[in-house]
Amino acid sequence: xxxxxxxxxxxxxxxxxxxxxxxxxTNTIYRAVGHICYQEIGEAETWAVDxxxxxxxxxxxxxxxxxxxxxxxxxxxxxxxxxxxRNEPSSAGDEVLDxxxxxxEVVACKEIELDD
Length: 116
Prior knowledge:
This protein is mostly beta strands and 116 residues long. The protein folds into 2 domains: 7-66; 72-113, no CATH class. It has strands spanning 7-11, 16-22, 32-36, 45-47, 63-66, 72-78, 83-86, 95-97, 103-113. The strands form 2 sheets. Strands 4-3-2-1-5 form a 5-stranded antiparallel sheet, with no helix packed on it. A hairpin with an 8-residue loop joins strand 3 and strand 4.
């Protein structure tokens, strides 16, 4: 997939990201500039034009597909008292990476239907 400016994308972690600008300098690896929508405004992120966030390794912040508004999401509750929404369900007892990249245990999962 080739990343384009002015588009929203889904990250590997299920978050929505916006790419606002593509740097023309082809000597720079991370040429796509934007932000991940769960972060505070002003926290810029960069990606390679293929959506890679970290060269040579898989990341929750990789851009993997154009953004499509989900019809339902899953609210995942973790054993450390935090929660986050995802596009895929998890089961109690699963160990998953949270959006900080830390391994946490799932204690519950609630499906939420979204309005159009």
